[in-house]
């Protein structure tokens, strides 16, 4: 039986939620599992998705979140569920990056293709349908050697038809508002054909329906051999997005994809090559100039052209989307934006107009003109806008001046506009974007917000401007670092091969310093900020090895050929631990050495006196507990475990948890746990108890535990168990890296 690759293009239902759902319903869990099996090749599992949370489900959730550039959580959060419930294409998205093809060389083996329109939609005139189909095919012909000829009878390479529900290809449509169309990859028979759902409303240009030209152009991409792209600006992105059909230009990602199959257009006029294909902006392009920056309910939004990046508080990497995928009524691109803490709205500015949204919904009466804010008619556009939390005023930057708008009184303040340099000392360039972050006001003057290529001015109230090279969505300014006794440059020069520079690290922040800071932070698995933050300084102050860390990845050697110059080595065990018998220690040491002997020419011989190549000894050190106030050891510590009332036979604590409600500390030891009363400083009676008596479903050894937002999290093996300690109820089983926001599951 011959199988075919099917693609379905679906409408975009704009529904966005900014808060996570605490617990997915059973129906959502089943829906999500079905979704991941269909589109991300999830293997057969048993039990609900969220409550199980084992690695196959988490991996596929992460894969799906990465594809749609959502926040990567590995859980069924609100944004993920909203995306899953949007109408979409029927072709799986797995293993797609930028443009993609169907694989197996599914392409036409000829450049001259025929097409036939079998019937028409009553939504449009015959001439409008003919024109839309022709222009949709020409989108691909303009950038390839492909040429399309229409025939009016017989079987064409691409058969085009409109139908509803079951329409003869075993892939029935689903009524209005969901599946718009589907198409088949190049192949004999039905291959290349494109079917459009007659239950939808198709239009010639209007946004009151789905523009047939845009839908058809996407479908014909599949008819020619392209699969989906994860580039939100690409025509081959899985969901529908409105654009002006009269000004449409095939994006660069789609051009690269189709030309990878068929090559470029040999008939292209070198004198008049046509419009340049639009590209999706790269966040780390050193030449990038942002159009606007704004806050929205805890998130930070960075705008460029028709795109924006969303930066979440818990996520290092921002997520990119089209502006109109979230705000369909917004302009294609914007000049400025800000969130008003007074009205709980976000405002977009484009030329002489302003749009107001409550989250993602356009407020009634908008767009309005700039004069609605009290700006003079001579102001044709806003360069940047900033809402000041302290004064509750909004500043509008126009050229070398700025205005102050009182959000409460909804009037412009008297005495404005003022020159920028009157308030922002040292600021002479044009402001392109502005926002507030943790009490600071960065004004973006040039380039972008990528760590190595960003020029930004930080306005500190009452002080001069400090020039910084920072990642603005993780902006941290620690003034005391400038007075630190630890010389950050000296550290980086010694251990990370920093070349000679002048001036203090933080104030200059040029790319060589930032690069080495990032390298050091990655090595020690710190938060990567590119700045001398507190954790980085603390790490630099720690006693350490004098060998440089640079250029270390996976295993590493000491360099300079530091190795034994012989293969026969001796070892001697000087003393023994009381925890094991002598024979057990002897066997353990011997087997440990044989680990290396099995894969090398090295051979190890034990001696019982004298000096061996490898001397092995055990030092006496009681099983203890250390107490710190912040980073400072508490006087009198370390103490023995018995100081907590634990039995002498308890040699090791596997995990400890302080319960906020009961003010008791739980100590996990093997398959049991103890309860310690912090107020009375005594162990509670009736303990130890078995772990599974309180924590139902937990059978393995506990390795770590903590509380977060009224939930108790217990780590065991590769999983983390989410409990309500008061009700003793298990809510979810998650991957143990859930809170680490890993991007490489």
TrEMBL record:
UniProt GO cellular component terms: extracellular matrix; melanosome
Modified residues (Phosphotyrosine): 366
UniProt-listed SMART domains: HX, ZnMc
SUPFAM superfamilies linked: Hemopexin-like domain, Metalloproteases ('zincins'), catalytic domain, PGBD-like
Any Pfam family: Peptidase_M10
TM regions (residue ranges): none
EC number: 3.4.24.7, 3.4.24.80
Positions contributing to Ca(2+) 1 binding: 123, 200
Keywords: Calcium, Collagen degradation, Cytoplasm, Disulfide bond, Extracellular matrix, Hydrolase, Metal-binding, Metalloprotease, Phosphoprotein, Protease, Repeat, Secreted, Signal, Zinc, Zymogen
KW Signal (keyword) present: yes
Residue sites binding Ca(2+) 4 per the record: 291, 335
Binding of Zn(2+) 2, residues: 89, 218, 222, 228, 236
Cofactor remark from the record: Binds 2 Zn(2+) ions per subunit. Can bind about 5 Ca(2+) ions per subunit.
An individual GO BP term: collagen catabolic process
Family: Belongs to the peptidase M10A family.
Protein name (Swiss-Prot/TrEMBL): Matrix metalloproteinase-14
Organism from which the protein derives: Collichthys lucidus
């Amino acid at each position: 039986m011959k199988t075919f690759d099917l693609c379905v293009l679906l409408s975009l239902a704009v529904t966005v939620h900014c808060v996570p759902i605490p617990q997915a319903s059973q129906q959502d869990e089943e829906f999500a599992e079905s979704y991941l099996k269909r589109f991300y090749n999830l293997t057969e599992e048993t039990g609900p998705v969220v409550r199980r949370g084992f690695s196959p489900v988490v991996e596929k959730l992460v894969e799906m979140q990465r594809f749609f550039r959502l926040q990567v959580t590995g859980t069924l959060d609100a944004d993920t569920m909203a995306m899953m419930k949007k109408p979409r294409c029927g072709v799986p998205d797995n293993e797609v990056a930028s443009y993609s093809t169907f694989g197996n060389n599914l392409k036409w083996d000829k450049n001259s293709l025929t097409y036939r329109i079998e019937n028409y939609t009553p939504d449009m005139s015959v001439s409008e349908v003919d024109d839309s189909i022709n222009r949709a095919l020409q989108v691909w012909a303009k950038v390839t050697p492909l040429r399309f000829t229409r025939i009016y009878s017989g079987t064409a390479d691409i058969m085009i038809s409109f139908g509803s529900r079951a329409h003869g290809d075993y892939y029935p449509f689903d009524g209005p508002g969901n599946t718009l169309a589907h198409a088949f990859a190049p192949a004999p028979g039905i291959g290349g054909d494109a079917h459009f759902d007659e239950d939808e409303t198709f239009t010639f240009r209007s946004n009151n329906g789905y523009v047939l030209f845009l839908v058809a152009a996407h479908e014909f991409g599949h008819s020619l051999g392209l699969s989906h792209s994860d580039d939100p600006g690409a025509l081959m992105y899985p969901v529908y997005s409105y654009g002006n059909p009269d000004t449409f230009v095939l994006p660069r990602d789609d051009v690269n994809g189709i030309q990878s199959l068929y090559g470029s257009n040999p008939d292209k006029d070198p004198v008049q090559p046509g419009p340049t294909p639009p590209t999706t902006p790269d966040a780390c392009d050193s030449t990038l100039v942002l159009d606007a920056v704004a806050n929205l309910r805890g998130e930070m939004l960075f705008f460029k052209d028709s795109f924006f990046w969303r930066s979440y508080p818990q996520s290092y990497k921002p997520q990119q989307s089209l502006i109109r995928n979230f705000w369909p009524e917004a302009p294609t691109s914007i000049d400025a934006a800000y969130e008003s803490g007074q009205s709980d709205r976000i405002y977009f500015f484009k030329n002489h107009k302003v749009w107001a949204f409550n989250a993602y919904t356009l407020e009634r009466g908008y767009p309005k003109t700039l004069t609605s804010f009290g700006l003079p008619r001579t102001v044709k556009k806003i360069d940047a806008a900033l809402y000041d939390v302290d004064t509750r005023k909004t500043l509008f930057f126009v050229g070398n001046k700025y205005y102050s708008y009182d959000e409460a009184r909804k009037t412009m303040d008297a005495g404005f506009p003022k020159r920028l340099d009157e308030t922002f000392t040292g600021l002479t360039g044009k402001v392109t974007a502005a926002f507030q972050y943790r009490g600071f006001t960065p004004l973006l003057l040039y380039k972008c917000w990528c760590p190595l290529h960003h020029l930004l001015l930080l306005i500190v109230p009452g002080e001069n401007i400090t020039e910084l090279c920072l990642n603005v969505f993780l902006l941290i300014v620690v003034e005391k670092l400038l007075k630190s006794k630890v010389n950050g440059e000296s550290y980086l020069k010694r251990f990370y091969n920093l070349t000679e520079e002048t001036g203090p690290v933080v104030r200059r922040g040029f790319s060589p310093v930032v690069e080495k800071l990032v390298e050091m932070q990655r090595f020690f698995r710190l938060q990567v900020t590119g700045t001398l933050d507190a954790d980085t300084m603390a790490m630099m102050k720690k006693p350490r090895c004098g060998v440089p860390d640079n250029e270390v990845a996976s295993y590493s050697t000491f360099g300079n050929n530091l190795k034994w110059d012989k293969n026969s080595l001796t070892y001697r065990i000087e003393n023994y631990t009381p925890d094991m018998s002598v024979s057990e220690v002897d066997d353990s040491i011997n087997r440990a050495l044989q680990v290396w002997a099995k894969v090398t020419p090295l051979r190890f011989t034990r001696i019982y006196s004298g000096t061996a190549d490898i001397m092995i000894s055990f030092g006496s050190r009681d099983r203890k507990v250390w107490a710190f106030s912040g980073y400072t050891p508490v006087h009198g510590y370390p103490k023995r475990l018995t100081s907590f009332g634990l039995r002498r036979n308890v040699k090791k604590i596997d995990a400890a948890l302080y319960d906020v409600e009961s003010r008791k500390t739980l100590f996990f030891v093997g398959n049991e746990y103890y309860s310690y009363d912090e107020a009375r400083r005594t162990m509670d009676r009736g303990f130890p108890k078995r772990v599974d008596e309180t924590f139902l479903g937990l059978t393995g050894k506990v390795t770590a535990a903590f509380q977060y937002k009224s939930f108790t999290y217990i780590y065991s093996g590769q999983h983390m168990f989410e409990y309500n300690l008061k009700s003793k109820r298990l809510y979810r089983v998650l991957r143990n890296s859930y809170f680490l926001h890993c991007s490489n599951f």
